[in-house]
Amino acid sequence: MDVVDSLATDVYSVHMVIPTDKKILLAARHVLEQGGVDAVSMRPVAKAVGITVMAIYRHYPDRQALLDAVATEGFADLVGWLGKRRFTGDAETRLMKVLDVFVQFALEHPKLFELMFLTKHMSARRFPADFKAGRSPTANLAVETIKEGMERGEFRQDDPWEVVMLAYSLMNQGARRKVFPTTQRRGIGTLLMFVVRNIFSNAAYRRDIAARLVEQGQLGASVLSDGDPLGFLVADGAAESITDAAYRYARHEKGVDVVLFGTGNKDHVKANVDSILRPALPAPVIERLHATFGHLTGVGLDRPGPVKV
CA 183 to CA 70: how far, in whole Å? Predict the structure, then answer.
Protein backbone atom coordinates (compact mmCIF):
# COMPACT_ATOMS: atom_id res chain seq x y z
CA MET A 1 0.00 0.00 0.00
CA ASP A 2 1.52 3.33 -1.01
CA VAL A 3 1.37 6.63 0.86
CA VAL A 4 -1.61 7.93 -1.06
CA ASP A 5 -3.70 4.78 -0.64
CA SER A 6 -3.00 4.60 3.09
CA LEU A 7 -4.19 8.15 3.52
CA ALA A 8 -7.26 8.13 1.32
CA THR A 9 -9.52 6.36 3.80
CA ASP A 10 -8.58 8.69 6.66
CA VAL A 11 -9.22 11.83 4.65
CA TYR A 12 -12.40 10.56 2.98
CA SER A 13 -13.91 9.56 6.32
CA VAL A 14 -14.01 13.20 7.40
CA HIS A 15 -14.68 14.64 3.96
CA MET A 16 -17.89 16.38 5.03
CA VAL A 17 -16.48 17.74 8.30
CA ILE A 18 -13.06 19.26 7.59
CA PRO A 19 -12.79 22.24 5.19
CA THR A 20 -11.11 21.42 1.90
CA ASP A 21 -8.05 23.57 2.54
CA LYS A 22 -7.50 21.76 5.84
CA LYS A 23 -7.92 18.35 4.20
CA ILE A 24 -5.34 19.33 1.57
CA LEU A 25 -2.96 20.40 4.33
CA LEU A 26 -3.56 17.16 6.23
CA ALA A 27 -2.87 15.10 3.11
CA ALA A 28 0.26 17.07 2.23
CA ARG A 29 1.64 16.64 5.71
CA HIS A 30 0.96 12.91 5.65
CA VAL A 31 2.75 12.55 2.30
CA LEU A 32 5.63 14.62 3.66
CA GLU A 33 5.99 12.58 6.85
CA GLN A 34 5.99 9.35 4.86
CA GLY A 35 8.18 10.29 1.91
CA GLY A 36 9.91 13.59 2.61
CA VAL A 37 9.76 16.96 0.86
CA ASP A 38 10.41 15.56 -2.62
CA ALA A 39 7.36 13.30 -2.33
CA VAL A 40 4.99 16.24 -1.87
CA SER A 41 3.38 17.25 -5.15
CA MET A 42 -0.10 18.27 -6.17
CA ARG A 43 -1.09 15.00 -7.83
CA PRO A 44 -0.68 12.57 -4.88
CA VAL A 45 -2.15 15.13 -2.50
CA ALA A 46 -5.20 15.63 -4.75
CA LYS A 47 -5.66 11.86 -5.06
CA ALA A 48 -5.53 11.45 -1.28
CA VAL A 49 -8.13 14.14 -0.70
CA GLY A 50 -10.35 12.95 -3.54
CA ILE A 51 -10.30 16.14 -5.60
CA THR A 52 -8.73 17.23 -8.86
CA VAL A 53 -5.28 18.74 -9.05
CA MET A 54 -6.76 22.02 -10.30
CA ALA A 55 -8.98 22.19 -7.21
CA ILE A 56 -5.92 22.45 -4.99
CA TYR A 57 -4.91 25.68 -6.72
CA ARG A 58 -8.08 27.37 -5.43
CA HIS A 59 -6.55 27.11 -1.95
CA TYR A 60 -2.78 26.99 -2.58
CA PRO A 61 -1.42 28.79 -5.65
CA ASP A 62 1.56 26.48 -6.05
CA ARG A 63 3.53 23.67 -4.43
CA GLN A 64 5.71 26.09 -2.50
CA ALA A 65 2.67 27.72 -0.91
CA LEU A 66 1.44 24.30 0.16
CA LEU A 67 4.82 23.42 1.70
CA ASP A 68 4.88 26.80 3.44
CA ALA A 69 1.50 26.03 4.97
CA VAL A 70 2.70 22.62 6.15
CA ALA A 71 5.78 24.21 7.73
CA THR A 72 3.64 26.86 9.44
CA GLU A 73 1.39 24.16 10.88
CA GLY A 74 4.50 22.31 12.05
CA PHE A 75 5.71 25.36 13.95
CA ALA A 76 2.26 25.70 15.52
CA ASP A 77 2.46 22.07 16.65
CA LEU A 78 5.91 22.63 18.14
CA VAL A 79 4.63 25.68 20.03
CA GLY A 80 1.86 23.44 21.34
CA TRP A 81 4.41 20.90 22.54
CA LEU A 82 6.31 23.62 24.35
CA GLY A 83 3.13 25.08 25.85
CA LYS A 84 2.07 21.75 27.36
CA ARG A 85 5.24 21.47 29.44
CA ARG A 86 6.32 23.23 32.60
CA PHE A 87 9.99 24.09 32.70
CA THR A 88 11.45 24.40 36.19
CA GLY A 89 14.91 25.00 37.59
CA ASP A 90 17.50 27.67 36.89
CA ALA A 91 17.73 29.33 33.48
CA GLU A 92 20.32 26.93 32.08
CA THR A 93 18.31 23.88 33.20
CA ARG A 94 15.14 25.26 31.65
CA LEU A 95 16.93 26.03 28.40
CA MET A 96 18.15 22.44 28.20
CA LYS A 97 14.61 21.21 28.82
CA VAL A 98 13.33 23.44 26.00
CA LEU A 99 15.96 22.01 23.66
CA ASP A 100 14.98 18.50 24.73
CA VAL A 101 11.48 19.23 23.41
CA PHE A 102 12.95 20.28 20.06
CA VAL A 103 14.93 17.04 19.89
CA GLN A 104 11.87 14.95 20.81
CA PHE A 105 9.80 16.72 18.15
CA ALA A 106 12.55 16.10 15.58
CA LEU A 107 12.71 12.41 16.47
CA GLU A 108 8.94 11.95 16.17
CA HIS A 109 8.53 14.10 13.04
CA PRO A 110 11.93 14.05 11.27
CA LYS A 111 10.65 14.90 7.78
CA LEU A 112 8.48 17.73 9.08
CA PHE A 113 11.32 19.08 11.23
CA GLU A 114 13.59 19.06 8.19
CA LEU A 115 11.04 21.08 6.22
CA MET A 116 10.58 23.55 9.07
CA PHE A 117 14.22 24.27 9.85
CA LEU A 118 16.31 23.17 6.86
CA THR A 119 14.21 23.94 3.80
CA LYS A 120 13.72 27.42 2.38
CA HIS A 121 10.14 28.63 2.56
CA MET A 122 8.55 32.02 2.07
CA SER A 123 6.88 32.07 5.49
CA ALA A 124 10.18 31.72 7.33
CA ARG A 125 11.04 34.45 9.84
CA ARG A 126 14.00 36.65 8.97
CA PHE A 127 16.87 36.99 11.39
CA PRO A 128 17.39 39.20 13.29
CA ALA A 129 14.49 41.61 12.67
CA ASP A 130 11.58 39.16 12.98
CA PHE A 131 13.13 37.40 15.95
CA LYS A 132 13.84 40.60 17.87
CA ALA A 133 10.25 41.67 17.17
CA GLY A 134 8.99 38.50 18.87
CA ARG A 135 7.58 36.93 15.71
CA SER A 136 9.16 33.52 16.32
CA PRO A 137 7.03 31.72 18.93
CA THR A 138 9.43 28.77 19.04
CA ALA A 139 12.42 31.03 19.77
CA ASN A 140 10.60 33.41 22.12
CA LEU A 141 10.51 30.94 24.99
CA ALA A 142 14.27 30.37 24.87
CA VAL A 143 15.02 34.08 24.69
CA GLU A 144 12.66 34.91 27.54
CA THR A 145 14.40 32.27 29.63
CA ILE A 146 17.77 33.83 28.82
CA LYS A 147 16.47 37.28 29.76
CA GLU A 148 15.16 35.98 33.06
CA GLY A 149 18.55 34.43 33.69
CA MET A 150 20.17 37.79 33.06
CA GLU A 151 17.80 39.52 35.48
CA ARG A 152 18.61 36.97 38.19
CA GLY A 153 22.32 37.25 37.64
CA GLU A 154 22.66 33.73 36.23
CA PHE A 155 23.83 35.10 32.87
CA ARG A 156 25.83 38.19 32.03
CA GLN A 157 23.76 41.12 30.76
CA ASP A 158 23.93 41.20 26.97
CA ASP A 159 21.89 41.03 23.78
CA PRO A 160 20.41 37.51 23.66
CA TRP A 161 20.15 37.73 19.87
CA GLU A 162 23.83 38.52 19.32
CA VAL A 163 25.12 35.36 17.67
CA VAL A 164 27.44 34.42 14.83
CA MET A 165 26.70 31.59 12.39
CA LEU A 166 29.72 30.17 10.64
CA ALA A 167 31.14 27.15 8.84
CA TYR A 168 33.61 25.07 10.83
CA SER A 169 34.86 21.52 10.45
CA LEU A 170 37.85 19.19 10.56
CA MET A 171 39.07 20.59 7.25
CA ASN A 172 37.86 24.18 7.54
CA GLN A 173 39.33 25.37 10.83
CA GLY A 174 39.89 29.06 10.12
CA ALA A 175 37.40 30.24 12.74
CA ARG A 176 39.57 28.72 15.46
CA ARG A 177 42.10 31.51 14.88
CA LYS A 178 40.09 34.28 13.21
CA VAL A 179 36.66 34.20 14.88
CA PHE A 180 36.47 32.30 18.17
CA PRO A 181 38.96 34.48 20.09
CA THR A 182 36.82 37.54 19.34
CA THR A 183 33.46 35.91 20.03
CA GLN A 184 34.72 34.53 23.34
CA ARG A 185 36.13 37.90 24.38
CA ARG A 186 32.88 39.71 23.51
CA GLY A 187 30.55 37.00 24.77
CA ILE A 188 28.98 36.39 21.36
CA GLY A 189 27.29 33.03 20.80
CA THR A 190 28.29 30.87 17.85
CA LEU A 191 26.19 28.54 15.70
CA LEU A 192 28.20 26.07 13.63
CA MET A 193 27.14 24.86 10.19
CA PHE A 194 28.87 22.43 7.80
CA VAL A 195 30.35 20.40 10.66
CA VAL A 196 29.65 17.24 8.64
CA ARG A 197 29.44 17.22 4.88
CA ASN A 198 29.97 14.73 2.04
CA ILE A 199 33.71 14.89 2.49
CA PHE A 200 33.37 13.15 5.86
CA SER A 201 30.71 10.60 4.93
CA ASN A 202 31.89 9.64 1.42
CA ALA A 203 35.33 7.98 1.46
CA ALA A 204 35.86 8.05 -2.32
CA TYR A 205 34.93 11.73 -2.50
CA ARG A 206 37.24 12.47 0.45
CA ARG A 207 40.18 10.77 -1.24
CA ASP A 208 39.48 12.65 -4.46
CA ILE A 209 39.45 16.01 -2.70
CA ALA A 210 42.65 15.16 -0.80
CA ALA A 211 44.38 14.14 -4.04
CA ARG A 212 43.47 17.47 -5.61
CA LEU A 213 44.81 19.35 -2.59
CA VAL A 214 48.06 17.38 -2.85
CA GLU A 215 48.33 18.29 -6.54
CA GLN A 216 47.76 21.95 -5.64
CA GLY A 217 50.46 21.81 -2.99
CA GLN A 218 48.03 22.47 -0.13
CA LEU A 219 48.60 19.07 1.47
CA GLY A 220 51.62 16.81 1.67
CA ALA A 221 51.54 13.53 -0.23
CA SER A 222 51.84 11.63 3.04
CA VAL A 223 48.15 12.24 3.81
CA LEU A 224 47.34 9.61 1.20
CA SER A 225 49.89 7.05 2.39
CA ASP A 226 47.19 5.01 4.16
CA GLY A 227 44.59 5.58 1.47
CA ASP A 228 42.26 7.71 3.58
CA PRO A 229 43.49 11.15 4.73
CA LEU A 230 41.28 10.93 7.82
CA GLY A 231 41.63 7.22 8.46
CA PHE A 232 43.78 7.83 11.53
CA LEU A 233 40.70 9.14 13.35
CA VAL A 234 39.26 5.63 13.63
CA ALA A 235 42.34 3.45 13.15
CA ASP A 236 43.37 3.65 16.81
CA GLY A 237 39.86 3.76 18.24
CA ALA A 238 39.83 7.52 18.79
CA ALA A 239 36.37 7.73 17.20
CA GLU A 240 33.66 5.32 16.09
CA SER A 241 33.59 6.86 12.62
CA ILE A 242 34.85 9.93 10.81
CA THR A 243 31.40 11.50 11.18
CA ASP A 244 31.57 10.82 14.92
CA ALA A 245 35.00 12.47 15.03
CA ALA A 246 33.76 15.49 13.07
CA TYR A 247 30.95 16.20 15.53
CA ARG A 248 33.14 15.68 18.58
CA TYR A 249 35.91 17.86 17.18
CA ALA A 250 33.54 20.78 16.62
CA ARG A 251 31.50 20.34 19.78
CA HIS A 252 34.53 20.53 22.10
CA GLU A 253 36.31 23.44 20.39
CA LYS A 254 36.61 26.46 22.68
CA GLY A 255 34.25 29.15 21.43
CA VAL A 256 31.64 26.76 20.03
CA ASP A 257 28.17 27.15 21.54
CA VAL A 258 25.78 25.32 19.20
CA VAL A 259 26.45 22.61 16.63
CA LEU A 260 23.78 22.52 13.93
CA PHE A 261 22.85 19.43 11.96
CA GLY A 262 19.88 18.33 9.94
CA THR A 263 18.50 15.00 8.79
CA GLY A 264 15.17 13.37 8.09
CA ASN A 265 16.40 10.04 9.47
CA LYS A 266 15.65 9.18 13.11
CA ASP A 267 18.65 6.88 13.40
CA HIS A 268 20.92 9.64 12.14
CA VAL A 269 19.49 12.09 14.67
CA LYS A 270 20.27 9.70 17.51
CA ALA A 271 23.75 8.92 16.18
CA ASN A 272 24.56 12.62 15.78
CA VAL A 273 23.35 13.48 19.29
CA ASP A 274 25.31 10.55 20.72
CA SER A 275 28.47 11.82 19.01
CA ILE A 276 27.96 15.38 20.25
CA LEU A 277 27.58 14.09 23.81
CA ARG A 278 30.76 11.99 23.72
CA PRO A 279 34.07 13.25 25.20
CA ALA A 280 36.57 15.27 23.22
CA LEU A 281 38.95 13.53 20.86
CA PRO A 282 42.36 12.68 22.37
CA ALA A 283 44.78 15.62 22.44
CA PRO A 284 47.33 14.00 20.04
CA VAL A 285 44.57 13.46 17.48
CA ILE A 286 43.46 17.09 17.71
CA GLU A 287 47.06 18.28 17.40
CA ARG A 288 47.46 16.19 14.25
CA LEU A 289 44.25 17.62 12.78
CA HIS A 290 45.47 21.16 13.45
CA ALA A 291 48.94 20.50 12.04
CA THR A 292 47.69 18.73 8.90
CA PHE A 293 44.54 20.62 7.97
CA GLY A 294 44.54 23.81 10.05
CA HIS A 295 45.69 26.01 7.17
CA LEU A 296 42.97 24.93 4.72
CA THR A 297 40.12 27.28 3.83
CA GLY A 298 36.73 26.44 2.34
CA VAL A 299 37.37 22.71 1.95
CA GLY A 300 34.33 20.44 2.11
CA LEU A 301 31.68 23.16 2.13
CA ASP A 302 29.57 21.45 -0.52
CA ARG A 303 25.79 21.37 -0.47
CA PRO A 304 24.01 18.27 0.86
CA GLY A 305 23.21 15.52 -1.62
CA PRO A 306 25.02 13.16 -3.98
CA VAL A 307 28.44 14.18 -5.28
CA LYS A 308 30.38 13.15 -8.35
CA VAL A 309 33.63 11.33 -7.67
Answer: 36
CATH code assigned at 52: 1.10.10
Omega prior to 128 cis, within 30 of 0: yes
Cα–Cα distance, 182 to 150 (Å, whole number): 22
Per-residue HEC secondary structure of 99-137 comes to HHHHHHHHHHCHHHHHHHHHCCCCCCCCCCHHHHCCCCH
pLDDT level of residue 5 (50, 70, 90 thresholds): very low
Query: DSSP 3-state assignment of 189?
Result: strand
Give the DSSP letter string of 27-64: HHHHHHHHH-GGG--HHHHHHHHTS-HHHHTTT-SSHH
From 86-90, 203-207, 269-273, 303-307, the region with the lowest mean pLDDT: 303-307
pTM over cut 0.90:
no
User: Is the domain of 175 the same as that of 261?
Assistant: yes
Largest CA distance in the chain: 70
pLDDT at position 107 is: 86
Which of 60, 86, 111 delimits the end of a domain? Answer: 60
Residues 225, 196 share a domain: yes
